[in-house]
């Protein structure tokens, strides 16, 4: 998702989490949820309202859905309780250095052989290149997050991993996050710009540092 969009300081975002709204939400979870079938963090409290709860739920999702709904035609669920989210990195250099835990190309770690070190240095060189402006990214596009009815997309859900990322992030996330969904990986290239060199870079990083 690209475009000339002003990057807002998230600390200026409106908050809509009043004590009354929180109380009514908790009350609904205690009472109304028993009338619906559910499994996992998404709990129905009416025919049109779902509460997503849990200790691992990210506040990013509510802010993202509001952003997407205001600036695009992508169908997303409406969010009724919103909170602030702090930004993490001020530039690409800091982001990529964090991803590789500060490792530089100067000294080879003792547990890495020569071929592996060649790959890691390639990854670092790729990360340290000049990058274009970040693009807004879902971060977890897969068939389970795209709701379809009668051949039409009804909604795109699960925005908790979304944010402003390097241009390659959506593509590499689709490939590396869906390793068993080969058909989906290839289908995604029809609507996401492919970044094969960046995919190699991320494949090397995830081999040694994991997905984050």
Automatic annotation (TrEMBL):
- Give the matching InterPro entries: AGP_Transferase, Aminoglycoside_PTrfase, Kinase-like_dom_sf
Which residue intervals define the domain Aminoglycoside phosphotransferase in the entry?
94-178
Q: What is this protein called?
A: Aminoglycoside phosphotransferase domain-containing protein
Q: Which CDD domains does this chain map to?
A: APH_ChoK_like
Superkingdom to which the source organism belongs: Eukaryota
| Entry-linked SUPFAM superfamilies | Protein kinase-like (PK-like)
Which Gene3D superfamilies would you find in this protein's record? 3.90.1200.10
């Amino acid at each position: 998702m690209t475009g000339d969009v002003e990057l807002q300081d998230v600390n200026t975002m409106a908050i809509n989490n009043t004590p009354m709204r929180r109380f009514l939400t908790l009350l609904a979870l205690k009472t109304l949820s028993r009338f619906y079938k559910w499994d996992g963090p998404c709990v129905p409290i009416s025919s049109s309202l779902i509460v997503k709860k849990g200790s691992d739920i990210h506040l990013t999702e509510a802010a993202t859905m509001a952003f997407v709904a205001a600036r695009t035609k992508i169908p997303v669920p409406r969010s009724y309780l919103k909170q602030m989210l702090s930004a993490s990195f001020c530039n690409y250099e800091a982001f990529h250095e964090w991803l590789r835990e500060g490792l530089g190309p100067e000294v080879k770690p003792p547990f890495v052989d020569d071929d592996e070190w060649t790959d890691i240095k390639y990854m670092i060189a790729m990360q340290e290149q000049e990058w274009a402006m970040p693009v807004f990214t879902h971060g977890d596009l897969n068939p389970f997050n795209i709701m379809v009815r009668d051949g039409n997309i009804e909604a795109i859900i699960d925005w908790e991993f979304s944010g402003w990322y390097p241009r390659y992030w959506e593509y590499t996330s689709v490939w590396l996050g869906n390793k068993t969904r080969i058909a989906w990986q290839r289908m995604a290239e029809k609507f996401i710009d492919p970044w094969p060199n960046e995919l190699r870079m991320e494949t090397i990083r995830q081999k040694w540092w994991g997905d984050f």
